[in-house]
Amino acid sequence: MAADAPREMTFLLAGVERRVLRLLAERVPRMLRSNHLTVLGTLGAVGAGTAYALTTYDPAWLWVASLMLGVNWVGDSLDGTLARVRGTQRPKYGYYVDHVVDAFSTAVIGLGIGLSPYVDLGLALGLVVVYLALSINVYLESTVFGVFKISYGRVGPTEVRLLLVLLNTMLALAPFPVGVVANWTLAVLLTGMVALFVGRFARNLYRLAKLEPQRFRWWEERP
């Protein structure tokens, strides 16, 4: 059921992204398939994580990290669109592979950020854990509610990548050490993500309690 659930795209750039991805998919050479793009997205994530770690030696690697985030977006976002344009969808296969790869990509990028001189490793790993918890919640929602909603409010994966690119640019151009600022910024972001998770969890419990109200039956109660 989860693999076939309709997607609800409500994040800020969803409309623009959908049109751009379709235009790109129509121009992808026939020799390239969705699996190739999935591999490209994974390599982009590994490249971004590696570049973040290498900023320990030279801040110029922040520009490489931003470029690799772009590569990750192309591969991760275009593989499903290409399959739909060509009519080669494999819903269960794609659902499984996509989310395993997403989890790996999140972990490797977060680890790279934590190994950079700008962000505390514990804080970066905390962001990874909470981001994965938010993702798992989305997958569970697609099963129990039958709708795959990949965003929280107006923020989706594309907006997160753009935020990282913006932070990379600010760090690369800053004329003074900005480690403390980066840590506080991400700490605020982590707090907001936890609040989003708790709020969505509470709302889902409320919806599910209304869909499946508990019925008290005294003869089934045991002392």
Write the layout of secondary structure elements.
Layout: E1 7-8, H1 14-25, H2 34-54, H3 61-86, H4 91-115, H5 121-144, E2 148-149, H6 157-173, H7 179-211
Parallel strand pairs: 1-2
Helix pairs in contact: 1-3, 2-3, 2-4, 3-6, 4-5, 5-7
Description:
By secondary structure, the chain is mainly alpha-helical. The chain is built from seven helices and two strands; from the N terminus they run βαααααβαα. A two-stranded parallel sheet has the order 1-2. Helix 1 (14-25) crosses helix 3 (61-86), helix 2 (34-54) packs antiparallel against helix 3 and helix 3 packs antiparallel against helix 6 (157-173). The mean pLDDT is 85.
Entry keywords:
223 residues, mainly alpha, 71% helix, globular
- Helix-strand makeup class: mainly alpha
Mean pLDDT: 85
The rounded Rg comes to 20 Å
Order of helices and strands: EHHHHHEHH
Please count the beta strands (DSSP E, at least 2 residues each): 2
Compute the number of helices.
7
Tell me the overall shape.
globular
Distance between the termini: 39 Å
What ranges have pLDDT less than 50 throughout 5 or more consecutive residues? none
Portion in helices: over 70%
How much strand content do the residues show? under 5%
Quick recap of the structure?
The protein has seven helices and two strands, in the order βαααααβαα.
